[in-house]
Amino acid sequence: MTPTLVRHHRHTESSAPADGASRARDWAEIQERMLAPLYEAVYTRLEVGPATRMLSLGCGSGLALLMAVGRGASVTGVDTDPDRLALARTRLLPASDERGAPATAPLLTESVAEAADSGPHHLITAFTPIGCEADDGEDLVRALETAVPSADRRATVVLTGWGPPERCATESVLRVAGRLADDGRGPGGGWRGPRRDDLEDVAFRAGLRPDGSGRVACPFGYADMDSAVRGLLSTRLFEAAVRATDRWQVEKELAEALHPHRRPDGTVWMSNVFRYLVCTT
């Protein structure tokens, strides 16, 4: 690597240990919007609107919920990250209705069981792409086993994952997470990469019936190298790497991996394709 690589990313604020609130803000302000084309494609295909009662598993800081509400849907969200949930609550603060009375805030919770009890729901979405870590499919199956029994009898469930590695430029960058997480004593977590049948495997184990699929282009674009590093760190895929090494080392190697995707104007751009699987209960 040339010495100029390190200078493209300044280890200043982002080099300090990041707390959960900082990572959640970076997710909401930088990274979450990268998946907006995926949300929109699913909502358009399923004709999400005023008749839709949606449960979002892994709702993050609420962008997917906000887009569904904009179509008139009623939404419930679940996420295990309390800092992301706090931002989602702020985003989804209800406005007054047309008579001036306070509208009802959507339920946002860390408990899948509590969210499921607020149903029945017509649509369950899992917009956090699976196939990134070794056990993320297991976690999703458990969540679906809790959520699906309370759903509408013919509910739709949407699972999402990364597309083929050869069509996802970010895949090579995310490999840094898996490499650094391995401390020499075996895999330490982080990125494992998608497999061809990840979504179908989860659907089968959760007792769902696949009923169509699609692919959506979701390019990752950042204003500069610092934004790219902060955005990718906010995905939580690098947490095992930070534990195995340190944050400065992870940032340095992440910036080096991003360098081929840096444009002459300083922006960072990576083309990606994501896949979704539509299932019925």
What do these coordinates show?
The chain is α/β, with parallel strands linked by helices and 281 residues long. It has a domain at 19-166 and 195-221 and 271-280: Vaccinia Virus protein VP39 (Rossmann fold, 3-Layer(aba) Sandwich). The protein contains twelve helices and nine strands. It has helices spanning 4-7, 20-31, 36-46, 63-70, 82-91, 112-117, 136-147, 170-181, 198-205, 225-233, 239-244, 247-258, and strands spanning 53-57, 74-78, 107-109, 123-130, 156-162, 209-217, 220-222, 268-270, 273-280. A seven-stranded mixed beta sheet has the order 3-2-1-4-5-9-6, sandwiched between helices. Residues 1-9, 11-17 and 184-188 have low confidence and may be disordered. Residues 1-11 have a biased composition (Basic residues).
Major sheet strand order = 3-2-1-4-5-9-6
> What is the CATH superfamily classification of the domain at 19-166 and 195-221 and 271-280?
Vaccinia Virus protein VP39
CATH C-level class of the domain at 19-166 and 195-221 and 271-280: Alpha Beta
Shape: globular
Instruction: Briefly note the structural class of the backbone.
Output: alpha/beta
Radius of gyration: 19 Å
- Give the overall pLDDT as a whole number: 87
Distance between the termini: 51 Å
Number of strands: 9
List low-confidence stretches. 1-9, 11-17, 184-188
Order of helices and strands: HHHEHEHEHEHEHHEEHHHEE
Largest beta-sheet characterization: 7 strands, mixed
Approximate strand percentage:
15-25%
The assigned CATH architecture of the domain at 19-166 and 195-221 and 271-280 is 3-Layer(aba) Sandwich
Helix content: 25-40%
Supply the number of helical segments.
12
Question: The CATH topology of the domain at 19-166 and 195-221 and 271-280, please?
Answer: Rossmann fold
Keywords: Methyltransferase, Transferase
InterPro entries: SAM-dependent_MTases_sf
Protein name: Class I SAM-dependent methyltransferase
Region (Disordered): 1-24
